[in-house]
Amino acid sequence: MVTLVAKSLFETKDLHTPLHPETIRDLQVGDRVEISGTIYCGRDAVLPKIVSMAKAGDLAKAGLHLEGSVIFHSAVSPAGVGPTSSNKLEIEGCIVPLSRIAGVKLHLGKGSLNEGTVRSLKEHESVYAIIPPVSALLRSKTVKSECVAFQELGMEAFYRLEVHGYPAIIAAAHGESIYS
Q1: In a domain, 34, yes or no
Q2: In this model, does residue 134 exceed pLDDT 90?
Q3: Is residue 7 part of a domain?
Q4: Which of 64, 116, 118, 137 is the most exposed, having the fewest neighbouring CB atoms within 10 Å of its CB?
Q5: Which residues constitute the domain of residue 86?
Q6: pLDDT tens-digit profile of 69-93?
Q7: Three-state SS letters, 61-115
Q8: Do the domain assignments include residue 113?
Q9: Beta pairing, strands 106-109 & 127-130
Q10: How far apart are the first and last CA of the chain?
Q11: pLDDT of res. 136
């Protein structure tokens, strides 16, 4: 069980993509963060396709460079973006391969992850952060949105966003989880 130390409501760590391993090593469960830079969005329909591309070595051919990246478990719609449950089989099953093969450093979503996934995040120097379902707030912090792969999936395609000040809380790091 992780004991969370009370932190100031205003104390946040600014994260700028791409994320470097030393940045990930400095994050602790319960840290409040604000993410700025390029992030990618995908959920159950597209993430298994992105994993297949990574395993085949085809990400760079598609112009997808995920080393040090953030993947937000979300669809993108005109109403904005909001997290989907990260513990859906199709999503959680993609977290470890995307960290291991593609170098994704932060997975952003909602809900708890199983203990095996939390341990694997540690092995691959990646973390998981949760974000409340606040679509309107996130829309206001999204500077640019562009579909970069699997356009035929509509709002569930793979998107690249430019963001400024996305709020989140680190939920799993270094083998620990706020859900344990």
Answers
A1: yes
A2: no
A3: no
A4: 116
A5: 14-177
A6: 999 999 887 767 888 999 999 999 9
A7: HHCCCCCCCEEEEEEEECCEEEECECCCHHHHHHHHHHHHHHCCCEEEEECCCCH
A8: yes
A9: parallel
A10: 5
A11: 66
